[in-house]
């Protein structure tokens, strides 16, 4: 095994032209770490937000971006019993890891690592952690297990794809999501199993009324994955005593007033929240969620996630993924082989 690895580094915040290929030393194994030889990584909007110098990057010290991986354990720290070299794993990689995932190797605290679902390829498994964990947390907050109606704003995106898969698995009777173009509508029907009647054109001026009509009234659970005006629409769609979760931003004053008028609860979702704890026991919640998702895939309760594999670890692939995500023009998840 070589003692260097290939990685894509960000030489300075700003343009995607600042990405460059580099040969770097393998990351060291810290106490509690698992070192993973990546087979695939996936992309998330937070990647370009950090690249541009946004506040999401304030905890990140590495110039290698990327938060999702699937791969093979290369070595484990002597104090660990949970994993062995050769195990196939996937992981939610945040600022606690040696670097991001645009690389061939990364060392990750074991609490953030789980055994890869056996039925998924590395490319499919790499698409799961950020989007699957975020969707899991959002659905838990809106009480998806007990609701009969759920509106998911942004259903065709990465997080939305997982939210829809999990909501369908729960058997929620009335599930509605908007789409802004024929490509997203086709994706939701062909890849996510929704019927035409479950999809609203969010560019229609009366789209809130249309959504209400599809449901026969407001929704007891609403998940916002878009923000801005769509979050405002979500506050209008939530029922009296209902629950609204957003993964994007806080409601403005007018939207908050709408929530007051419904006695509705607002839940901000931060997928990285557990990583901010100093207690490694709290970090373990990531593995618990990944294990749960694994079980759903391997039991056949949910189908393999739809993905688009853009190509191998390279500046070109990273730049292409960032360009597509910045246009908000992605259905499902974009993946890179490593
Ligand atoms: N809080 C957290 O922990 C957390 C975690 C993950 C992600 N996020 C954030 O959540 C957002 C979504 O993440 P993602 O990975 O799902 O992004 P994504 O995959 O880039 O989402 C793309 C989707 O957004 C939809 N969309 C864009 N504008 C829309 C609008 N005005 N109304 C309705 N849908 C619209 C698009 O559908 P159409 O093609 O139909 O327009 C597209 O399919 C991002 O801002 C991301 O930074 C937060």
Overview of this structure, please?
This protein has 338 residues and is of the alpha/beta class. It folds into 2 domains: 4-128 and 272-337, Medium-chain alcohol dehydrogenases, catalytic domain (Quinone Oxidoreductase, Chain A, domain 1), CATH 3.90.180.10; 131-268, Rossmann fold, CATH 3.40.50. Helices cover 31% and strands 27% of the residues. The protein has 10 helices and 15 strands. The strands form 3 sheets. Strands 3, 4, 5, 6, 7, 14 and 15 form a 7-stranded mixed sheet that branches. α10 links the parallel β14 and β15 (333-337). α3 (129-141) packs across α4 (158-170), α3 (129-141) packs across α9 (280-298) and α7 runs parallel beside α8. The protein is globular. The two termini are 16 Å apart. Bound molecules: NADP nicotinamide-adenine-dinucleotide phosphate.
Estimated structural class: alpha/beta
Give the N-to-C terminal Cα separation. 16 Å
Number of separate strands = 15
Task: Report the top-level CATH class of the largest domain.
Answer: Alpha Beta
Number of domains: 2
The CATH level-2 architecture of the largest domain is identified as Alpha-Beta Complex
Sequence of secondary-structure elements:
EEEHEEEEHHEHEHEHEHEHEHEHE
CATH superfamily of the largest domain: Medium-chain alcohol dehydrogenases, catalytic domain
Q: pLDDT average, as an integer?
A: 96
Task: Quickly count the helices.
Answer: 10
Portion of residues in beta strands equals: 25-35%
Bound molecule types: NADP nicotinamide-adenine-dinucleotide phosphate
| Rg computed from alpha carbons, rounded to a whole number of angstroms | 20 Å
Shape: globular
CATH third-tier fold name of the largest domain: Quinone Oxidoreductase, Chain A, domain 1
Low-confidence spans: none
């Amino acid at each position: 095994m070589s003692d260097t690895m290939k990685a894509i580094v960000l030489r300075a915040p700003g343009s995607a032209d600042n990405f460059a290929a580099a040969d770097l030393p393998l990351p060291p194994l810290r106490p509690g770490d698992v070192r993973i030889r990546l087979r695939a990584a996936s992309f998330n909007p937070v990647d370009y937000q950090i690249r541009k110098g946004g506040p999401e990057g304030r905890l990140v010290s590495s110039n290698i971006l990327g938060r999702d991986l699937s791969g093979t354990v290369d070595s484990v720290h002597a104090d660990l019993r949970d994993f062995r070299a050769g195990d196939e794993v996937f992981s939610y990689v945040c600022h606690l890891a040696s670097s991001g995932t645009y690389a061939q190797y990364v060392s990750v605290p074991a609490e953030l690592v789980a055994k890869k679902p056996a039925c998924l390829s590395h490319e499919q498994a790499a698409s799961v952690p950020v989007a699957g964990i975020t969707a899991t947390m959002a659905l838990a907050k809106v009480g998806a297990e007990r609701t009969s109606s759920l509106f998911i704003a942004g259903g065709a995106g990465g997080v939305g794809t997982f939210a829809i898969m999990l909501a369908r698995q729960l058997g929620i009777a009335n599930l509605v999501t908007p789409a802004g173009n024929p490509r997203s509508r086709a994706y939701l029907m062909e890849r996510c199993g929704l019927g035409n009647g479950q999809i609203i054109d969010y560019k229609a001026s009366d789209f809130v009324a249309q959504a209400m009509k599809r449901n026969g009234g407001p929704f007891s659970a609403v998940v916002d994955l878009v923000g801005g005006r769509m979050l405002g629409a979500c506050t209008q769609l939530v029922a009296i005593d209902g629950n609204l979760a957003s993964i994007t931003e806080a409601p403005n004053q007018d939207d908050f007033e709408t929530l007051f008028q419904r006695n509705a609860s607002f839940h901000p979702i931060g997928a990285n929240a557990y990583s901010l704890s100093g207690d490694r026991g709290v970090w373990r919640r990531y593995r618990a969620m990944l294990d749960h998702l694994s079980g759903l895939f391997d039991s056949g309760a949910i189908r393999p996630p739809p993905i688009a594999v853009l190509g191998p670890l390279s500046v070109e692939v990273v730049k292409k993924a960032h360009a597509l995500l910045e246009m908000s023009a992605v259905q499902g998840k974009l993946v890179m082989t490593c």
